[in-house]
## 1
Amino acid sequence: MKAVRAAEGGVQVVDLEEPPGTGELLQIRSASICSSDLMYISYGCRFILGHELAGVDEAGDAYVVEALYGCMDCDQCRSGRYNRCPTHGERGLGFSIDGGMAEQFRAPAGRLVPLPAGLDVRDASLVEPAAVSWHALRLAGTGVQTRVAVVGAGALGLLAAAGAQGQGAEDVAIEARHPHQIEAAARLGATIGTDGRYDVVVEAAGSPASLARAIDLVAPGGTIVVVGVFMEKIEIDWPSLFLREARLIPSLGYCAHAGGREMEDAAAMLAANPEISRTLISHRFPLKDAEEAFQVASDRRSGAIRVVLEP
Ligand SMILES: [Zn+2]
Ligand SMILES: [Zn+2]
């Protein structure tokens, strides 16, 4: 059984005796490459990669894998906020345990989310990053009356622009740098470029400059929500936040809420608007060509947004 293992400077396609993971067996139909995977490679992780996963079980039913595995026993997990489980770093797919970028993968039954009608399992690996952006928008209180700006137009930024519209916002602007990102943002119905200040600002680039930009854009009383990953101490222009009494909140993964799971919300959004997957999935490769796929995903000039591996 083929699987994609992190290796020095890239990945290696390896043959495994047994599918990675524990639990229900899935035939993986789509596994996408995330910038986190590239980060894990650079950290020196050597696990099987893959946390954006969709597949079918033995009965032929299609699922996405909710890739945040909490302990399901602590207070945070029991309240549905398994993204805040203090142990989830020990269960990071591709980071601290083997992920599912493989022909087959086993996932705990409780972490499988059934696909809604209208969402093709070949597109469904996108549900995972879509849930990350969906969670951020919910944390920030996005709604019909909110003006939303997104800084950064990689996959998470574009999915935030789509998600903000999915949560009812009519005025959604995005700051995009590269021509293929601008084109994608326009296809998703976002306004290209910002004008004035915004109630909700999504920082989706993960750089100090983009966080500073997000602070520039927030309206008095507004909220900046950060999906970009900062793993070191950073400087923040506190007076600008203070004088506008703006909130700055980090966003981590996704979780459940009284009405269900954010993975279900994100899947419903993708099912309702297939243009999102068509726009976001820029490349598809067979799993055996994962080395080339990772080169494309890590090359800024390739025009890649999401690169999907298929059987
Ligand atoms: Zn990811
Ligand atoms: Zn827990």
## 2
Amino acid sequence: MDNKILIKDLCNLAQLDIDAIRAYAQALDNIDHATIHTQISSFKADHDRHVNDLSAVIRRLGGEPPDFSPDLKGFFIEGFTAIRSMTGTEGALKAMRSNEKLTNRTYEKALGWEMPADIRAIVDKNFADEKRHLAYIEQAIETKAWEKTSV
Ligand SMILES: [Fe+2]
Ligand SMILES: [Fe+2]
């Protein structure tokens, strides 16, 4: 197993989670619905944990985890969120749906990587969070959750 390839792949994954955190921060500024805000905040916290867990693994393999700064992909995510967020909670949720589709696709691909079982367990756990994020956001959009006082 080539650690260099795995380190690079894990760094890309951590960078995507960093970008997601930035996008979530921006979306939260536009969400005035209390229950949805709480829910989305907890998803942002999940992404914080993903970055911390992935960074620890990258260091353990002898690599250097990415800085907490957006790369070009991050700019794309942030820009996209900014545009959609202009219509409040609904726009923010729709922007985050696009972002979560991207994180879900990326984590799904990561399952195909060759990696030790303990690292796979972390990727699996993160992917389970991503699926839960996307499912909640899709359901919230479907039911127009922002029109209700509690969700
Ligand atoms: Fe994540
Ligand atoms: Fe997510």
